Amino acid sequence: MAALGGDGLRLLSVSRPERQPESAALGGPGPGLCCWVSVFSCLSLACSYVGSLYVWKSELPRDHPAVIKRRFTSVLVVSSLSPLCVLLWRELTGIQPGTSLLTLMGFRLEGIFPAALLPLLLTMILFLGPLMQLSMDCPCDLTDGLKVVLAPRSWARCLTDMRWLRNQVIAPLTEELVFRACMLPMLAPCTGLGPAVFTCPLFFGVAHFHHIFEQLRFRQSSVGSIFLSAGHLIGPVLCHSFCNYMGFPAVCAALEHPQRRPLLACYALGVGLFLLLLQPLTDPKLYGSLPLCVLLERAGDSEAPLCS
Asked: What angle do CA 27, 45, 7 make, to 5 degrees?
């Protein structure tokens, strides 16, 4: 009743014939080799992305406008070429996704509005405590804050700020393209959809360790504070941009805040609501059909839990 699937165990009904992965049916490499190809491809993408940041030799810190502009060029080139890695992976493994490359990577109109709104809403709920802390410490009231946010002059100033463009636009867009849109289709046939969702952030997190050495080099932070902050397509990009704006929650400042009790209550409420709403707001049925499920079916894993 139990059948060995190369990279893991899969329980199959004895009454159903065992279905071979499409790569094997096409005479491609076996599942074990496919997994090695997938992991190596993801590792290559991560190294290429981080390596592109250091092709420009400079003694200036990472927040210097000249450094930021040069790195914009590097990561945009690597991100533009990253879909080619998925195409190469497809040729090496013999797995045919059954859908276009862009659709598989998350570029599709179906379900775009819930994909843009619901994940961002869920992330903002998680950050309920920090948002309340921000509003308490803000010198202006809500009306004045909205005027500033909606003012064209404020947006024009942001669009000419290299740090803002990096943190809110370029980094979320390119990092989600490389570390999620490209890696997830390559990892899913190997690990399954659920584990792949949690594996992609590991590549993303490891790729951010270079910030530690940069900040220590220019003595911008202590080792402890760096480890707390280093590591933070429409939905992930918006959530990524929001998280970059908010930064790591200032829990220590909240503990010393004059309104500590209501603030900590908001922190706890945000985490509780996030856990409560996580499953219903991330239900795949809200976002239309999943191209990754077609990929898994063709790879021989038609019984993935998120696809049933």
From this structure: 40
pLDDT digits (tens, 9 = 90+) for 114-145: 888 999 999 999 999 999 988 888 777 767 77
Closest CA to 189 of 258, 266, 259, 98: 98
What does pLDDT average to over the chain?
78
Phi-psi region of 11 (alpha: psi -120 to 50; beta: other; left: phi over 0): beta
Total domain count, the chain: 1
Phi and psi (nearest 5°) for 299? -85, -5
Domain that holds residue 286: 31-299
pLDDT in tens, 199-221: 887 777 766 665 555 555 555 55
User: Backbone phi, then psi, for 5, in 5-degree steps?
Assistant: -105, 30
Biggest CA-to-CA distance, the chain = 69
* Cβ contacts of 77-81, under 8 Å, gap ≥ 24: 77/52, 78/48, 78/49, 78/52, 78/174, 78/178, 79/49, 79/173, 79/174, 79/177, 79/178
Is residue 64 assigned to a domain?
yes
Residue 306 resides in a domain: no
Residue 123 CB contacts under 8 Å (≥ 6 apart), including other chains: 239, 242, 243
- Our answer to whether residue 176 is catalytic in this structure is no
Of 233, 231, 236, 208, nearest to 49 by C-alpha is: 208
Q: Which of 22, 91, 208, 214 is catalytic?
A: 208
**Active-site residue identified among 175, 176, 211, 240:** 175
This prediction's pTM: 0.74
Query: Is 14 inside a domain boundary?
Result: no
Q: Is 23 among the domain residues? A: no
A 10 A CB-CB count for 248 gives 13
Q: 47-51, 236-240, 286-290, 302-306: lowest mean pLDDT where?
A: 302-306
Taking the C-alpha atoms of residue 127 and residue 71, their distance in angstroms, rounded to an integer, is 30
* Ramachandran category for residue 219: left, alpha or beta (phi over 0 → left; psi -120 to 50 → alpha): left
Is residue 175 part of the annotated active site? The answer reads yes
